[in-house]
Amino acid sequence: MNHTRPILRLIDDFKRRRRDTGLLRVQQPESGAPFTLGNLPNKVDFGALNAELMELRQDLHQVACSVLAHVEKYGDVRLIDRLIAAVPAFIDTHPLMDWFTVFGSVEFVDGKAKYKARGQSAIEVATALPFWTIPAEE
């Protein structure tokens, strides 16, 4: 893939911001190994962590809006899968997937985005309504 394309640079930049954030990184234990807290710092500044999480979610929302515009223009949903794969493990991707389904011509089958021709996306509304504010589907 050509990573000089602006839409791909947005996702790559998001990955860099995610990697550089000071948020705690949870390491995946080896298969069958018990989870331990390991070498977590003794004092955690939860206010700073919350601020960084909000900033990361705002960045993710901006990239998601750009990806939604790309899907509307080209009908190419592969970038949605790339974006969801770039989301850190501590952020639930289900609200983001629901957001793409509600505002875009997208459906998810077995966790993968599929294009669903159904007219125009609601990009203006999607821009104003971040994915974490979408009520969970029952």
From TrEMBL:
* Top-level taxon of the source organism: Bacteria
Name of this protein: Uncharacterized protein
Instruction: Name the species this protein comes from.
Output: Bradyrhizobium icense
